[in-house]
Structure to design on (147 residues):
């Protein structure tokens, strides 16, 4: 016959052995999770440091863009002023040239020599239109950089 107490004790010993093996396996898993936790913490720390560096770089870029925008704005205003001055001076030069042509015409009419063609080589309106187009392109570039 089967000895019942001995069978029960053998069964308890096997269950105890299985429990010990399971605990060893669980312990190994816990060690691996702790190691992974350390790696994860280091990764998070590196990510935070990288994010801070990127934020500082973005702030620097924003400051540079603002400074560039201010500088370009000043230069644009100066260019527009210069353009309008050129138009004014060209128109004034055309008027002076016209007066000189009249004076030369009167003089040449009195002396009998032919009157030369003294029309200005460049139309002041063409210069003004070109300067306006340049200013428009510069504004578009500034808006494109700000966006």
């Amino acid at each position: 016959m089967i000895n019942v107490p001995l069978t029960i004790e053998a069964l308890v010993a096997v269950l105890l052995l299985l429990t010990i093996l399971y605990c060893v396996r669980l312990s190994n898993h816990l060690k691996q999770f702790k190691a992974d936790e350390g790696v994860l913490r280091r990764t998070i720390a590196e990510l935070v440091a990288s994010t801070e560096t990127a934020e500082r770089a973005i702030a620097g870029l924003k400051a540079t863009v603002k400074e560039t925008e201010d500088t370009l704005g000043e230069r644009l205003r100066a260019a527009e002023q210069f353009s309008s001055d050129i138009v004014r001076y060209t128109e004034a030069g055309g008027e002076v040239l016209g007066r000189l042509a009249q004076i030369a015409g009167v003089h040449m009419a009195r002396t009998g020599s032919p009157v030369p063609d003294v029309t200005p080589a460049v139309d002041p309106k063409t210069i003004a239109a070109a300067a306006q187009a340049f200013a428009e392109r510069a504004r578009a570039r500034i808006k494109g950089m700000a966006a």
Q: What stands out?
A: The chain has a mean pLDDT of 85. Residues 68-146 form one domain. Residues 105 and 144 are 53 Å apart (CA to CA). The first helix runs from residue 4 to 111.
